[in-house]
Amino acid sequence: MEYSSVRDRESEPRVKVLPRDEAREHLLAIADLIAKVMDTTIRIPGTSWYMGLDPLLGLIPGIGDTLANLIGTVILGLGTRLQVPRVVLARMSLNLLINGTVGAVPIFGDLFSVWFRSHSRNAALLRDAAMKPDRETHADWFYVGGIIGGTVALLLLMIAVIIWLIYKLWAMVQA
After folding, report:
1. Cα–Cα distance measured from residue 78 to residue 123, given in angstroms and rounded to the nearest whole number
2. What is the reported pTM?
């Protein structure tokens, strides 16, 4: 008899677990806070535009955009904890990839980060997926395929332009 009471006490959870809905709302609130800090903390004077830490970090040469994207991956981690569909995680990853790739271009990339707001997009995607776990994902897969195809096409175009510029510069040096 005493053995079973000891066993019953051991089977009780030692850590208080939040109800699922409260825990989900807490994780979504963290994602919203990160998005606000990274994308819309400060109003740009004289405009209706807001900017956050992301474009400011982008001003640090070399590591700024990497730091901003590392902070953005926290929202991805929250997505995995909330068990959102993988296609949503793919869309969120693509948003970070686009922001990081374009953000690497000095000045233009920082302006792009102010406009694109990848962290806010990701927080909205996360909230939508977490609140509607049974939503259809065929359109999402089409979107992800289009983004991947467009990204590959743009990268190939950029490589072609760089090769063409190098060829023209080489021809000018040889002349």
Report:
1. 10
2. 0.68
Sole residue written with tokens 């699922």: 20
Distance CA 158, CA 137 (A): 31
pLDDT tens for the chain, 175 residues: list them.
455 555 555 555 454 444 568 888 999 999 999 999 999 999 989 998 899 999 999 888 878 888 998 999 999 999 989 888 888 888 898 899 889 888 888 889 889 999 999 999 999 999 998 887 565 567 767 777 777 777 778 778 878 888 998 999 999 999 7
- Cα 153 versus chain centre, distance: 21
Question: Which of these, 30, 54, 25, 29, lies nearest to 41 by C-alpha position?
Answer: 54
Tokens representing residue 103 in the block: 């953000």
Which amino acid, residue 31?
A: A
Residue for token pair 């066993």: 7
